[in-house]
Amino acid sequence: MPDALQIIVADDHPLFRDAIVLALQASLPGCRTLEASSFSTLEAMVREQDTLDLVLLDLSMPGANGFSSLVFLRGERPEVPVVVISSNDHPRTIRRAQQFGAAGFVPKSSPVAVIREAVQAVMDGGAWFPAQKAERSEEDAQLAARLAQLTPQQFRVLMCMADGLLNKQIAHELGLAENTVKVHVTAILRKLECHSRTQAAVLVKALQAEGGDDAATLPE
């Protein structure tokens, strides 16, 4: 008998998570769902789970910086498809989600049937995005390619750099030796083609999504 599908539902609104879990259980009977309400919780789950089949991701969880959680997932578990479910359905946000590696994008205002359709398409090895998308951005493509060169640990260090932490503070935050952090910072600046920590922080700001903040919208 095949193992049950393991799916993470990452969203900071409990009612929305409940609605998504019910939709998943109806369309994928027997699947095992794990719930994350923050980026730190998601990060821990991804590390702990040997087998993971899908992540449904809200972009605006506490601890996340725009598309940073998506970029982290693609770096940490590139074999696991990610479907972004967001109330920020600006055309450029949808296109950027695709360029940063999402397998699908579903607006939170979508009815349950659409969410199920998107999940099934992705689980079948395909992709699912709304019909109307912004044009491809070469700038975003270059940013995605640079970020893809970072190891998961380097990406964590980069997020700390973007928060203005010094090497000593980053070492304490991540449980690393300060010299190790220095080595990571040097590698990060080289891979991102940046001459300073400030330039690297500006690149992280470029991960911000278009439009306003996400808000919980329950599927119909």
UniProtKB/TrEMBL annotation:
Lineage per the UniProt record: Bacteria, Pseudomonadati, Pseudomonadota, Gammaproteobacteria, Nevskiales
Domain Response regulatory, residue spans: 6-123
Name of the protein described by the UniProt record: LuxR/UhpA family transcriptional regulator
Source organism: Hydrocarboniphaga effusa AP103
Positions carrying 4-aspartylphosphate: 58
Swiss-Prot/TrEMBL GO biological process terms: phosphorelay signal transduction system; regulation of DNA-templated transcription
Residue stretches making up the HTH luxR-type domain: 143-208
Entry keyword DNA-binding: yes
Alphabetized UniProt keyword annotations: DNA-binding, Phosphoprotein
Molecular-function GO terms, alphabetical: DNA binding
